[in-house]
């Protein structure tokens, strides 16, 4: 209780000191107590008393009152420069804090699965930046397990997962759904055939799956898609992330099933083809902690809502 009283007393004193600096600046700029009082919309006697109190507390005379028109003393001239700087800094701090409080500044940490960079995510990020150019946007790539851990440990604010994260502590919003396609080595016989590729005919092919761990993962989603066509790939090569998987495809190690948006970014040595058969597609979902009420987070979800509404 005593601590609160001391804090309130300290804040009250600080407020009074800032007021006195404003009074001082007005008198120093007008060099006339009457005009300064009118500018401050107050009576002259209390203004004179406030300046006298300020001089007593500082221990220096700020105005030379011996002449018909008052003048600043040397000490007063120094205080005028410093007082202007102090009040400018305070005003700037208030404006900066207000901007952060409204979500117009501050920091937003967004993490995403690697394959999301080929689809709608870049456009979404661009839209957010255009609305909130002063927010420090931190971007990083993670797998689903890292995304979940990052949210729980508060290391990130926003997670863009494929297909989604589970947990009652997360708020979620669907971002995008798209079909699966095949990523094939450009020297593959499949890449050159004119007939439609049937998923059921790929049971003898080597499938490059990702991520290797943790499981279950997108790799298990692809294996389930294959099971829907009545087979399990005879040969499975696991990569830790999408970039490694597509690199293995480019050098002819095998084929991969990837989101269609990946084909928007051509890769040397890789051809993309649609296929016939079981294709449940794949989704991107955006998550944040329910208790993360940062205005930047809420505004990011608002941008998602507007963005997805515009696309439908």
From TrEMBL:
Signal peptide: none
InterPro entries named in the record: LysR_HTH_N (IPR000847), LysR_subst-bd (IPR005119), WH-like_DNA-bd_sf (IPR036388), WH_DNA-bd_sf (IPR036390)
SUPFAM superfamilies per record: Periplasmic binding protein-like II (SSF53850), Winged helix' DNA-binding domain (SSF46785)
One GO MF term attached to the UniProt entry: DNA-binding transcription factor activity
Keywords: DNA-binding, Transcription, Transcription regulation
Location of the HTH lysR-type domain: 16-73
GO CC, any one term: protein-DNA complex
Regions crossing the membrane: none
Family statement drawn from the similarity comment of this UniProt entry: Belongs to the LysR transcriptional regulatory family.
The protein's name in its UniProt record: LysR family transcriptional regulator
Organism taxonomic ancestry: Bacteria, Pseudomonadati, Pseudomonadota, Alphaproteobacteria, Rhodobacterales
């Amino acid at each position: 209780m005593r601590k609160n009283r001391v804090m309130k007393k300290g804040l009250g004193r600080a407020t009074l000191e800032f007021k006195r600096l404003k009074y001082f600046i007005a008198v120093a700029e007008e060099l006339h107590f009457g005009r300064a009082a009118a500018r401050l919309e107050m009576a002259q006697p209390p203004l004179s008393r406030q300046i006298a109190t300020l001089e007593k507390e500082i221990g220096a005379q700020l105005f030379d009152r011996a002449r018909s028109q008052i003048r600043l003393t040397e000490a007063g001239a120094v205080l005028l420069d410093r007082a202007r700087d102090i009040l400018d800094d305070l005003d700037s701090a208030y404006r900066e804090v207000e901007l952060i409080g409204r979500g117009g500044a501050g920091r937003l940490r967004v993490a995403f699965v690697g394959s999301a960079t080929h689809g709608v995510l870049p456009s979404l990020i661009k839209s957010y930046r255009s609305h909130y150019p002063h927010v420090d946007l931190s971007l990083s790539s993670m797998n689903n397990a890292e995304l979940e851990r990052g949210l729980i440990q508060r290391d990130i604010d926003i997670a863009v997962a494929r297909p989604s994260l589970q947990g009652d502590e997360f708020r979620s919003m669907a971002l995008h759904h798209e079909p699966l396609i095949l990523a094939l080595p450009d020297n593959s016989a499949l890449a050159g055939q004119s007939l439609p590729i049937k998923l059921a005919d790929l049971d003898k092919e080597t499938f490059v799956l990702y991520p290797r761990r943790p499981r279950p993962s997108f790799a298990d989603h692809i294996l389930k898609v294959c099971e829907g066509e009545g087979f399990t790939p005879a040969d499975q090569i696991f990569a830790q992330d999408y970039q490694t998987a597509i690199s293995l495809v480019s050098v002819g190690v095998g084929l991969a099933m990837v989101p269609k948006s990946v084909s928007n970014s051509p890769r040397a040595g890789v051809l993309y083809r649609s296929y016939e058969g079981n294709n449940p597609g794949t989704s991107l979902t955006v998550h944040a902690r329910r208790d993360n009420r940062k205005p930047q987070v809420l505004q990011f979800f608002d941008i998602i809502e507007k963005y997805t509404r515009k696309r439908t």
